[in-house]
Amino acid sequence: MQDFLAGIAWQVAVLAGLTIVFTVLAFLSRGRAALHWPKSLRQSAITNFLIVQFTSLNGAMYLVLIAPLAVFYTWLGLPVLDAAAWDSVPLAVKALAALVVYDFSLYWVHRMLHTSVLWPAHAVHHSDPELHFLSWSRGHFTEQVVIAGCLVFTSSWMGFRLEEIAGLALIKGLHQHYVHSKLDWDHGIFRDLIVSPQFHRWHHANVAEAYDKNFASIFPVFDRMFGTYYNPGSAIDVQTGIADNPANDFLTQTLYPFRKWAEMLRARGKAQEQAGAL
Ligand SMILES: [Zn+2]
Ligand SMILES: [Zn+2]
Q: In this predicted model, what pLDDT tens digit does every residue of 41-91 receive, in sequence order?
């Protein structure tokens, strides 16, 4: 119990720090309007906070899941690059190589999450009508396991140690909070180098032209390569969310994928019944 409370206190301290940092950045970018948190934004923030505390494994995800997933990788007997292969490679290059391989894998995992059966798990992340830095925390635990697996499997294959994988997770986590923040930054001449808040806001846009675009988490080059790049400019006023937005509360969000999967099964059963009756 004490560990649980200490964990929550730690998370609250981290989130308070992130709130200060992103509020200052938003203030510098958008002026006093950034200090106004309307009721809908407060509701979103509470829902995201509860999700991160009680169902999403974000934050603690890496500490909780890295070790068992790495053991699972070894158990499967999958190949591992000899760790000595990295001996003469500078740490920054090694980290960059790991992030490129991870982001390439996640690009395709993310594309799969946008397909019919997997979509309900990912739709929770897309359902935030008030995209802000905490929205990254809005991830259903069923998809979080898949994303953590992607990180651990790609890093394990490259011969990385657990603490190195945790370090990568930290870099990725901070960047993810940043790209979800309410900043209309596109990184100027570096826009194709690193994913910006504007690029990712278009991924969340509830606009037909932006559907199934901008899957990369870190490097937009993958969207350029595979024809899914979309950034027509400012996204700060674009509506975010999904067509069938579930209510913006913790319980509805947690149950949403299960409700959708049950609906899919019922529809499939009905279709089979009708086909049998013909
Ligand atoms: Zn998505
Ligand atoms: Zn997102």
A: 899 988 988 887 776 655 555 567 777 888 888 888 888 888 788 888 898
Q: Which residues contact 225 (CB under 8 A, 6 or more apart)?
A: none
Which ligand sits closest to the CA of 139? 2
Residue 196 alpha carbon to ligand 2 centre in Å: 11
* Closest ligand, as measured to the CA of 114: 1
* Cα separation, 110 vs 141, whole angstroms: 15
Instruction: Kindly give the distance from the C-alpha atom of residue 67 to the centroid of ligand 2, in angstroms, as a whole number.
Output: 25
Inter-CA distances, 159 with 72, 82, 247, Å:
15, 6, 43
Per the CB < 8 A criterion, the answer to whether 231 and 186 are in contact is yes
Q: How far is the CA of 267 from the centre of ligand 2 (A)?
A: 29
Q: Which ligand is nearest to the CA of 180?
A: 2
Classify the C-alpha dihedral 92-146-65-60 as positive or negative. positive
Q: Which ligand is nearest to the CA of 214?
A: 1
**What pLDDT is stored for residue 277 in this prediction?**
76
Q: Tell me the C-alpha distance between 204 and 213, whole Å.
A: 9
Nearest-angstrom CA–CA distance, 103 and 242: 24
Judge contact between 80 and 156, C-beta under 8 A. yes
What is the Rg, in whole angstroms, of the alpha carbon atoms belonging to the chain? 20
CA of 263 to the centre of ligand 1 (A): 21
Q: What are phi and psi of 209, to 5 degrees?
A: -65, -20
For 189-200, write each residue's pLDDT tens digit: 999 999 999 999
